[in-house]
Write a structure and sequence with these properties.
α1 crosses α3, α8 packs parallel to α9 and α12 runs parallel beside α18. About 12% of the residues have low confidence. The chain is elongated, with a radius of gyration of 31 Å. The protein has 626 residues and is of the alpha+beta class. The longest helix is centred in the first third of the chain and has 18 residues. The chain folds into 4 domains: 190 residues, Histidine kinase-like ATPase, C-terminal domain (Heat Shock Protein 90, 2-Layer Sandwich), CATH 3.30.565; 123 residues, Ribosomal Protein S5, domain 2, CATH 3.30.230; 144 residues, formyl-coa transferase, domain 3 (2-Layer Sandwich); 90 residues, MutL, C-terminal domain, regulatory subdomain (Ribosomal Protein S8, Chain: A, domain 1). It has 19 helices and 22 strands. One of its GO terms (biological process) is mismatch repair. One of its GO terms (molecular function) is ATP hydrolysis activity.
Length: 626
């Protein structure tokens, strides 16, 4: 009786022939045209070339040609180069622990030749003639002596002609070409001593200078004006050397595509460095923006494992947390020592045509005690110049900062607080912010912006963003910070939370106390709120706590300091003076002077700029005075 079962027997195990094995390996090593370019160019660099010409047509799908002036391959070694795992770069397994070359596995050339039509011409300096080979689909078609200059020239045509499934899933020619563009730009940036010439469909796309000077390459890739907005980074610590350039925040991009990282000369994707840059730029870039950066990292080869990814695009490093901290500190230090005031005519970096594809730093200087209740001008005057956005913003974010009512009261208020707010605190001993301009307030624009003049031009300050930065640095928990100002509530507020929300508040209770929130456990899912930061209205205390809970939930299970940063930013935003509120001249000047003493005066904690500028030359040009 047939019970539906099918008898199965194990097929006989066989050793695959070399051609089939190469095609399987090609699926790992040669993923798309950019993989071919990467492998060929890395071989050129390993050969000591200081001139590499890359020419592609049809996005690299139709043809790829790489010509270098390296040491070449001898006639007897050229056929061996197309055998799997034949390499001159390592001799045994122990060498894998100290890789100093870009290639080492001997898989690239046989893998490429297995899925394409490949022609190679190569000559060593010692030989009077070169050697030629033509291979298609892994089969040798022709070989022999050939006339050619010292170095190696490889032409790859009809990529994946014999693996239609792989070819079918390639992207468009422009997309594949864009990925190659990206790779060549990155290699040029991390190898400034090598002259790269890149030609796509007969048009020269890039010619790097090969001068060894990174700014020259930055100018070639991004344009001269953008290159001038890049800042040098150089640090050596604990056997780790970091060298490169990072962009000012105004050069930010919407993706990480323009973060270029090389480790021991190898261009890689590094989550560790990306996280370090996020740490360094925290508060300087808005959400969803990423910096432009070119960083070259050098450390002992024994501390690296470059053999974890088929295409060698990812690596493993010892002491990754130490590296993250060092990169973050080095970049943050450079940013702190630079005037980051955006210029209105500032330029974004020229974007090479490419295909689409934490712990905050502690503030190490005390900020003088702030008077948060800035004196307002007549509210009627404020309303007359308030935009619809300003009115909405003022309604939604109403806080304990109350405007003064009546002209007489305004006048009295000005005189009463002139000595308190109008006076600028002394700069701490030994501290001088050399890059922030010395500004004199000229007036208020649209009850939202402060106009000021200083050496070199005219400056516009966002009053909300500036006050937000000042308050944030008060809340964030600086060394030596005084106890928070707390107002205790006459009637404690019962906050009802679900279990997970209550657990979160319990976990961050100390951090909240440092900000001025005083809680008492009231059983089950309840907390009694007995105190809130001094400059908030008691009437909004429950909403404030719920906003804090939501902020913690949104941050997720990240580091405690990252949550503290987010909470301090939220409080600063809610307490800061809003767009649409009119301020007295004394208040505006005090706000600007205190912003100058902030540790990071150029942006609010969410990354929006606090100040922008027009130079005298730009103003003259606007009025045709040049």
């Amino acid at each position: 009786m047939d019970d539906g079962r099918v008898e199965r027997t194990m097929p006989k195990i066989m050793v695959l022939n070399e051609q089939t094995a190469c095609r399987i390996a090609a699926g790992e090593v040669v993923e798309r045209p950019v993989s071919v370019v990467k492998e060929l160019v890395e071989n050129s660099l390993d050969a000591g070339a200081d001139l590499v010409n890359i020419s592609i047509t049809g996005g690299g799908i139709e043809s790829i040609t790489v010509v270098d002036n390296g040491c070449g391959i001898s006639q007897e070694d050229t056929p061996l180069a197309f055998q799997r795992h034949a390499t001159s770069k390592i001799k045994n397994a122990a060498d894998l622990d100290r890789i100093t070359t870009l290639g080492f596995r001997g898989e690239a050339l046989p893998s490429i030749a297995a899925v394409a039509d490949l022609t190679i011409k190569t000559r060593t300096p010692e030989s009077s003639e070169g050697y030629y080979m033509h291979i298609r689909g892994g089969n040798m078609l022709d070989s022999g002596p050939a006339g050619c200059p010292v170095g190696t020239s490889i032409k790859v045509k009809d990529l994946f002609y014999n693996t239609p499934a792989r070819r079918k899933y390639l992207k468009s020619k422009s997309t594949e070409g864009g990925l190659i563009n990206d790779l060549v730009y990155k290699m040029a940036l991390v190898r400034p001593r090598v002259r790269f010439v890149f030609i796509h469909n007969g048009r020269e796309v890039l010619r790097s200078p090969g001068s060894g000077n990174i700014p020259d390459v930055l100018a070639a890739v991004y344009g001269l004006r953008a290159a001038k907005l890049m800042l040098p980074v150089n640090v050596v610590e604990a056997g780790i050397e970091i060298d490169g350039y990072v962009g000012k925040p105004e050069l930010s991009r919407s993706t990480r595509q323009q973060i270029t990282v090389a480790v021991n000369g190898r261009t890689v994707r590094s989550t560790t460095v990306n996280l370090a840059l996020e740490d360094a730029y925290r508060g300087l870039l808005t959400v969803g923006r990423h910096p432009v950066a070119v960083l070259s990292i050098r450390l002992s080869p024994e501390k690296l494992d470059v053999n974890i990814h088929p295409a060698k695009m990812e690596i493993k490093m010892d002491r990754e947390e130490e590296l993250r901290s060092l990169v973050a500190r080095a970049v943050r230090s450079v940013l702190r020592d630079t005037n980051l005031t955006p210029v209105i005519s500032g330029v974004a970096p020229r974007t090479p045509k490419m295909a689409p594809t934490a712990e905050p730093f502690k503030l190490d200087l005390p900020v003088p005690q702030l008077v948060e209740t800035l004196p307002r001008a007549e509210p009627a005057a404020a309303a007359s110049g308030t935009s619809e956005e300003g009115r909405t913003n003022m309604d939604e974010h109403s806080s304990g900062l109350q405007p003064v009512s009546g002209a007489d009261e305004t006048s009295n208020e000005r005189s009463a607080v002139a000595g308190e707010v109008g006076q600028v605190a002394e700069v701490p001993a030994g501290y001088r912010r050399t890059h922030f301009p010395d500004l004199r307030v000229a007036g208020q624009l649209m009850n939202a912006y402060i106009a000021a003049e200083g050496e070199g031009g005219v400056y516009i300050i966002d009053q909300h963003a500036a006050h937000e930065r000042i308050l944030f640095e008060k809340y964030i928990g600086m060394p030596g910070k005084a106890a928070p100002e707390v107002q205790y509530l006459l009637a404690p507020v019962n906050i009802n939370l679900n279990n997970s929300e209550k657990e979160l508040l319990r976990e961050y209770k100390t951090s909240l106390k440092d900000l001025g929130f005083i809680f008492e456990d009231f059983g089950r899912n309840n907390y009694l709120l007995r105190g809130i930061p001094a400059h908030f209205s008691p009437g909004e205390s429950e909403r404030l706590v719920m906003d804090m809970v939501e902020e913690i939930l949104e941050q997720g299970r990240v580091s405690k300091v990252a949550v503290e940063y987010a909470m301090a930013a939220l409080l600063a935003c809610k307490a800061a003076v809003k767009a649409g509120e009119s301020l007295t001249m004394e208040a505006m000047q005090s706000l600007v002077d205190r912003l100058a003493l902030a540790d990071e005066p150029y942006t609010c904690p969410h990354g929006r700029p606090t100040i922008v500028s027009f130079t005298r030359r730009e103003l003259d040009a606007m009025f045709k005075r040049t």
